[in-house]
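Cont'd.
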Amino acid sequence: KAGVTQTPRYLIKTRGQQVTLSCSPISGHRSVSWYQQTPGQGLQFLFEYFSETQRNKGNFPGRFSGRQFSNSRSEMNVSTLELGDSALYLCASTNPTGTGTYEQYFGPGTRLTVT
Amino acid sequence: EDQVTQSPEALRLQEGESSSLNCSYTVSGLRGLFWYRQDPGKGPEFLFTLYSAGEEKEKERLKATLTKKESFLHITAPKPEDSATYLCAVLTNTNAGKSTFGDGTTLTVKP
């Protein structure tokens, strides 16, 4: 069974630019979450989508946005990049089963560097 | 607000020296507590989900337990390849889809 895939794996952007990251969840998983990981702040929740609807959003500015497509693939966009946006962006795929159990699997991440 | 605290921040063990990592949490309505292993530059690797106090799960040299306030990850006779950062996260009934993470414990196992 293929795992969570994220593209691109590495990205270098300049301040003020915008960027789009992509995530393909495990087949059959309908929930996709995004996290930002930095050495100082750890893993911070960005947002979560389930069946194309954003169910939850973290405390990030409006420059961070996302969406989910009908095939469960998700994208996140960061506009007007700032130096502080440099981080590892992680996507997680979750499939709550009918019994209410949860297993959350992460992709390898996209390493974004803003110069 | 949901809070997760992991201790210690770092742990150095000799190969074969068993120990435990702690994850304390304060949430309203725990849906599940996750444990992950993360190697440098990689995404977290799912290990376990625990759901209720008293539950235990095992995988190779790892055993996770859960109480109403904390979870422990016991590592029995660790090997150098167990060196990694171990992360704990909680999912609650009131915050759909959002996992709150602790800062992790970085484990180093010396041969």
